[in-house]
Amino acid sequence: MIQNKNIVVTGASSGIGKAIMDELVQQEGNRILAVCRHADRISGYGENVIPFSCDLSTREGVDALFEKAEELFDKVDLYFCNAGAPYYEQFDYEDWDRIRYLFDLNTVSHIYTYSKYLNHLHGRQGRLVYTISAMGEMALPGYALYAATKFAMKGFQQAVRDEAPENLQITCVYPVSTRTNFFNVGSGGRKLTPPFPVQEAETVAKAVVEGVNKLKKHIYPCPVYLPSKYLMKVVPPVKAMYVKAQKSKLHRFVKKVKAEGEGLREEIKLKRTLK
Q1: Mean of the pLDDT values across residues 91-106?
Q2: Per-residue model confidence (pLDDT) at position 237
Q3: Rounded to two decimals, what is the model's pTM?
Q4: Cys-Cys crosslink for 275: which of 15, 94, 112, 267, Cβ 3.0 to 4.6 Å?
C-alpha cells in the first residue's frame, strides 16, 4: 500500500489529478502537495494536503514547485506528473504562441520535471508517474496538437528508461477519454461527446494507485483499450471506421461553430487550466 509517503500531485484541483489525490489521502500517513493554478479550489482535506499554486508551463513554475516540495519534505517519494492543457479544434491556423504553450505545459514541463526530480532524489528511491493518455498512441481528428504533445512524451519515456539510474522508477498511465471538465474546457465551453470508450476519473485513479502499488511500468486503466488496439492493428478497416467517425464529429463541430456566427479561432480560446 502507498502509506506514509511524501507525494506531489499536479493538476490536483479536478479530473484525474483530483481523483488520484482522493485515493491517496485515504491511506495512512500520506502527505500530499496538491498543485494547480488556483490553490483555492482545493479545500477540506485537512493538514496532510497542502495546496500550492503555480504555472507549470514555465520553468519558473516548475522550479517554484520543487522549492516548495523541498521546503515541506525531506524527500518526495512519489511524483504524479498529471498537469495538461485541453482543447478540441481543427488545426488550420497560424499561432506560434498557442503551439508553444501546449508543448510547454504538456511536454517540456514534464521532461524538465524528470531532470529536477532525478537531482532531487540524489540517489534515493523515488517513482515518477506520467499521465500520458491513450492519445499518445493513437491520434484522432480534433486533437492534432494534443496528440503530438503526448506522442512526444511516449517517446521520451521510452528512451529515458534506459538512461535512468536504478533508484528512479517511471510509471506511465494511458487513460482513454475520461468524464471530466477536460473536454468542455477544450471545446470552448460547448458540450462535447468524448471519443469512445469513456471512463470515470475515479475508475482511472483506482487503477493508477493499484498499478503503482504493484510497481507497474505501464498502466492501462480501461480493460478494453489494449484488445481494441490489437483489433485495429490486425483488422485495419475497424480503425478506419473509428477514425472516420471522429472526423465526421469534428466537421459537425466546426460547422456548428461557424453557424453561430463566430470564427472558430475567436471562440475556442486555450485556457490555462490543468486536468
Answers
A1: 92
A2: 94
A3: 0.89
A4: 15
